[in-house]
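Hey,

Quick one before I head out. I ran the complex with pyridoxal-5'-phosphate overnight. Inputs first:
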Amino acid sequence: MALYHSTRSLSGDLYPAKHAILHGIADDGGLYITDDLDEISLNVNDMCNKNFLEIAQTILKAFLSDYSDEEIAACVHNAYDASFDSPELTPLVCVGKRHILELFHGPTSAFKDVALQILPHLMGYAASSNDKKIMVLTATSGDTGKAALEGFADVENVGISVFYPHNGTSEIQRLQMATQKGNNVFVWAVEGNFDDTQTHVKQIFANTSLAHALNQENVILSSANSINIGRLIPQVTYYFYAYAQLVQSKRITLGDKIDFCVPTGNFGNVLAGWLAKQLGLPVHKFIVASNENNILTDFLTTGVYDKNRPFYKTISPSMDILISSNLERLLYYASGNDAAYVAKLMDDLAKTGRYEVQGNILARIQNDFECGFATDNQAREAIEACYKTHGYILDTHTAVAWHVLQNCGPSQAKAQVVLATASPYKFCKDVCNALHIPLDANASDFDALRALQTQSNTQAPVRLARLENLPVRFNDVITADDMTNVVEHSCKEIAQ
Ligand SMILES: *Cc1c(COP(=O)(O)O)cnc(C)c1O
């Protein structure tokens, strides 16, 4: 049975997975983690004969052992049966000598769908064992909010309220949220920037009198943040499935080691891969690819994590991050499950914006991880070169990984897989730029989308293309001070 505790906890309290999924983050600010990894090793040979859904069930059962088999099966089917536009869900395609694992076939055309399609169902079962309803609050700069809305829409026992900065998202991102369907969804544009919105959501979570009042109505607030184990663990699935696809198509033989190159921000995606390796997946190296916010490149090279540095806005905005929260989990394991040590590092980070890990811990990490980064120009060049050579269009995030892998020396791995985290159509203006497709100065996102379709003779995901003509449901712009009120109001609606 896998039990969870805080990465920073010395108390010895252990919780079942449902508790960790419902609460998201531990009371001491640490992340939930399990010490039972060696107990849940899996038979890779068996996994290679399974499809995505079967692998997902095996992984979830192993990690979330307090869910019944029926609950796991229902979660997997509700999440994945009808929501992806590829029969494989996460197909592996051959591009030159490399392989690309396409993680963008879900409803919002980005990889977060894999986890956010299933998290609401996992939360729903965790809440119903508890007779509560859950209101998920999300501040978003664009991508996460929509992926969360798509996942939570019309799921029983949960509701979702999303706040995004007014005039702070792209037109496509705004319409993705403003046109969202579902009876339990609430979407608000908030005056101010993303940080203001985020700060106010945190204040609402910390408001104990509000929590008390909502509790009277049997509603608890929760978050769909990427530190929730309910987002991390479903991502383990596609690492096994990528390997299974390589074996099934005879491009490798069982037991061969492979590399994964991952466009990284919060370190959630690549950490899920590392967990797969702990469960027995034959991986040679994980290559952590960053954009100009290359704090992870520095950390993995020197052992010093220092966020006292400029923040750059890049063409890969979902990787514009200076605090890679999920790294805390790797530090826990790499330090030999030393919660006191992790608590000390995180305290250093909070007080000085910096920490440094011991040499032996860095060496252990470097055993599994390589790294590199790409500037915006290098990412654009990668998009252009990959299209010219292979006829394959990378998105701006995947292009970072493509560049980084190209710059790594030769590898002993039998195959190399690049994780594609978004459809090029989600960031089509920047992709058009990289491919030198001419656009008018005042071209809309949809003009860029059509130009990319015509020039490349490929098809945009239907759910992006038809946004232009969907009815807008949410048009309200509120001030940050209104946020608490609208949360109370939306909680009343789902409590009924
Ligand atoms: C969120 C996101 C990432 C970063 O993933 P992490 O798990 O935060 O490392 C990369 N690419 C895209 C398109 C994303 O949406």
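DSSP finds 23 helices and 15 strands in the chain.

Talk tomorrow,
K.
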